[in-house]
């Protein structure tokens, strides 16, 4: 009797491959904002302004005052795997820029309409050009421009119906974007950030370049947070166990919150580290009677060969060498600071 024929294996169309890949890099509006801001930071901007319409589904516009993009580079700007930041695989080990894959802008053109306006130093005018599916739609048009680059992402996920539907039902992407900008703003304190809804006169995040971390935290998270922070530092320069240098601020026993705020940068990359967050929460729960959740800002510097930045396309998770040792060290430093502040407070209350 006839056996069932196996299904034929076919090669996917390039356009299908690109759209699937793009959906992984740009998972939601906030992922596009993160990529654009990182590009602006890589371009050495000192001012980055974000405008959002309809939670980012209608419009994400990021304007910076960075070095701009050369006219000759515009034709390949949004092709996949075109970058000014990486050339050899080995360079990944020492790379300082946020980007390196040359995939972000390309991805956006597969799931949205992308328009770039840019001017390079010394030019009398800039250029504006739109992209779709990786390619330039027409020759760049000369236009008036201020220093830097402005990128507009319109109609995000216009060609991904399911993604668009699920995002329309959750109205919280604007707050995710504000949260993201807040995190960048307290780390990159030499850069001024703003984020507003399209048409709004008031910005929801607004910072000016400063030299004081605490001032930046105050202007983003408010006086009541900044007032209750303590400086924290930890280092370990023993190369046989781990090499790291941590600086930051953690909330004291006077700070009260139901949710943890953990802002973590490792080698200037905004990352998540669930193990570290848990470890710090445990110290707070054990030390403070009212079980308040902490506010934590930490910047950790590690030798670049101890960090693998290449484990996920969104670059959100990093993997560290000697993670347990580092977490333990930080945990005991947090405990020390917190116990001290708690004892001072108890002592004051008894007076
Ligand atoms: P990557 O950042 O990984 O290189 P992207 O797709 O994000 O890839 O960007 C591609 C290239 O476009 C970058 O390498 C950079 O040269 C240029 N670029 C993107 N955004 C900006 C910007 N805001 N200012 C200057 N150059 C930019
Ligand atoms: Mg990039």
From TrEMBL:
Coiled-coil portions: none
Compartments where located: Nucleus
Domain DNA mismatch repair protein S5 residue range list: 217-339
Family classification: Belongs to the DNA mismatch repair MutL/HexB family.
The name this protein goes by in its record: DNA mismatch repair protein S5 domain-containing protein
Higher taxonomy: Eukaryota, Viridiplantae, Streptophyta, Embryophyta, Tracheophyta
Part of the whole protein covered: 24 to 374 of 784
């Amino acid at each position: 009797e006839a056996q069932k024929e196996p299904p034929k294996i076919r090669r996917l169309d390039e356009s299908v491959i690109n759209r699937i890949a793009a959906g992984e890099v740009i998972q939601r509006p906030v992922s596009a904002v993160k990529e654009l801001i990182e590009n602006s930071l890589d371009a050495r901007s000192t001012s980055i302004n974000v405008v959002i319409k309809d939670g980012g589904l209608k419009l994400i516009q990021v304007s910076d005052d960075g070095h701009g993009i050369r006219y000759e580079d515009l034709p390949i700007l949004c092709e996949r795997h075109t970058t000014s930041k990486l050339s050899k695989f080995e360079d990944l080990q020492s790379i300082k820029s946020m980007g390196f894959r040359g995939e972000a802008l390309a991805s956006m053109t597969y799931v949205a309409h992308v328009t770039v306006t840019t001017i390079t130093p010394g030019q009398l005018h800039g250029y504006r050009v739109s992209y779709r599916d990786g390619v330039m739609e027409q020759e760049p048009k000369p236009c008036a421009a201020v220093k830097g680059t402005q990128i507009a992402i319109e109609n995000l996920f216009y060609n991904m119906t399911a993604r668009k539907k699920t995002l329309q039902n959750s109205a919280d992407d604007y707050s995710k974007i504000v949260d993201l900008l807040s995190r960048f703003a307290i780390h990159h304190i030499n850069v001024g950030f703003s984020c507003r809804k399209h048409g709004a006169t008031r910005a929801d995040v607004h910072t000016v370049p400063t030299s004081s971390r605490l001032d930046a935290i105050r202007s983003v998270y408010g006086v009541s947070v900044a007032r209750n922070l303590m400086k924290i530092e930890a280092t370990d320069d023993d190369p046989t166990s781990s090499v790291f240098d941590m600086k930051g601020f953690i909330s004291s026993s006077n700070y009260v919150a139901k949710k943890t705020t953990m802002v973590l940068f490792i080698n200037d990359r905004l990352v998540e580290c669930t193990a570290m967050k848990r470890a710090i929460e445990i110290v707070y729960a054990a030390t403070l009677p009212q079980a308040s959740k902490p506010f934590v800002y930490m910047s950790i510097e590690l030798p670049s060969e101890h960090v693998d930045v290449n484990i996920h396309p969104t670059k959100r998770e990093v993997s560290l060498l000697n993670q347990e040792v580092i977490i333990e060290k930080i945990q005991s430093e947090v405990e020390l600071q917190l116990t001290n502040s708690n004892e001072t407070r108890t002592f004051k209350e008894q007076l």
